[in-house]
Amino acid sequence: MYVLGIESSCDETAASIVEDGRRVLSNRIASQVPLHQRFGGVVPEIASRAHLEQIVPIVDGALKDAGITLNDVGAIAVTRGPGLIGCLLVGVEFAKSLALARGLPLVSVQHVAGHLYSPYLGRETDAWGTPVTSPGEFEPFVGMAISGGHSSLVLVRGPGVIEPLGETLDDAVGEAYDKVAKLMGLGYPGGPLVDKLAAAGDPKSFQLPRPLLNRDNFDFSFSGLKTATARAVEQAGGAEALKADEQLLADLCASFQAACVDVLIGKAKKALKGRRLKRLAVVGGVACNRGLRAALRERLTHTQVANPDPEFCTDNAAMIAGLGWHVLKAGGTSLPSLNATARLDLTAGARAWQL
Ligand code: KG4
Ligand code: ZN
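^ thats the input. predicted complex w/ KG4 below
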């Protein structure tokens, strides 16, 4: 069955066609980065308006790329939350109207649960290397969802069946990347820029903290690291002085990145050991980080690490269509009264159909 997925929780309008929950036929994403760049962050009102403008062409494009029409679609899946309410509303109301007009079942998906489903997606094989046409054994794994809006460490027992282990107590790791980049006078979004500069720097040049690394839990905290980096920027003479000294800038980026990587990998290792699991999946925008990817390969040699393709790591609708198929199979059709919700618990992914 072909499921049309729709995602509009933040600054990406996305639509995708996924067959039987695994095989991605199309994955259209309209990024709003250029619209928000000059503000140094996502402006909710601008984002909602852009979703309104993009949603019809993006859905059309996803159908066209997949070589199908609406007549071939078996169900519609949409992100219900969490996210920016004005943005979520565009996707949810559009999906509800389309489902009603075409007489199609509608299912809702929790956004982070969607991210945690992304390792099972692919065009030929999934992120574990299994052909996407195989019936699909869903072995449990430790999942780390890291992006601009969330930093969660979880145990994934099956599609959408998630046991939370730990969460950030303050900033999300992507948010810390973006804020630190801003302090250093770099552009937006800061994550990819810091990542690129870090490659040329010495990660030992600045002594930065590894918050909560040695605590006996799975929670994260990135605001202290952000403050320590801000102090280092000040001591270096501010953003202008840093810009004038390419090596110093690269060194600070590398030191910040090393602190993030140490904390993320340290907690993931602890979860793998504690749960005696051999599979780890890292998803969300920060999972694109090259320093993190390299460190995962080097430091987790006895673990099967799934790093989904960047197109499935950042916000996308394939993960919504994919998990949506399982929700539908479990009988989780949503009612026409379905509402977008800015705050939605991660475990709602497992029982999205009851909401
Ligand atoms: O998943 P995503 O597209 O959106 C949500 O936040 O849900 O993630 C975007 C976040 C931004 O904070 C961005 O700076 C960060 O992911 N990011 C990165 C990299 N690429 C994107 N952070 C570090 N290194 C990267 N290469
Ligand atoms: Zn996301």
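The mean pLDDT is 94.
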